[in-house]
Specification:
The protein is mostly beta strands. It has no helices and eleven strands. The strands form two sheets. Strands 2, 4, 5, 6, 9, 10 and 11 form a seven-stranded mixed beta sheet that branches.
């Protein structure tokens, strides 16, 4: 069973940067597509970014394109999300997730129900 633990959240001013990390344990995630989602107060959880198991393909939600970068280190069993030029509307709890279905190296799932295991989330707050 895979456990995911996010870290790196916090309070930052608008225009600032944060880097979120997600550490996997219990099983290697090197062959699983991974993603980041977020949930703002009073809103449903939404897709942020995803990366294929090989790392060759990434996908982003439109509002974060050019500002966020997803990456992974399969040797370390970790996933990261570099967030630059943060805006108050980026305030949310950020979750990492994994899709244990075996897919080709280009597969980047963007739907919540594609994912099988989730972390507990880390809070990101961007002040104006």
């Amino acid at each position: 069973q895979v456990q995911l633990v996010e870290s790196g959240g916090g309070l930052v001013q608008a225009g600032g940067s944060l880097k979120l990390s997600c550490a996997a344990s219990g099983h290697t995630v090197s062959r699983y597509a991974m993603g980041w989602f977020r949930q703002a107060p009073g809103k449903e959880r939404e897709f942020v970014a995803a990366i294929s198991w090989s790392g060759v393909m990434t996908s982003y939600e439109d509002s974060v394109k050019g500002r966020f970068t997803i990456s992974r280190d399969n040797a370390k069993n970790t996933l990261s999300l570099q967030m630059n030029s943060l805006k108050p509307e980026d305030t949310a709890v950020y979750y990492c997730a994994g899709d244990r279905a075996l897919n080709d190296e280009w597969y980047v799932p963007a739907r919540e129900f594609d994912y099988d295991f989730w972390g507990q989330g880390t809070q990101v707050t961007v002040s104006s």
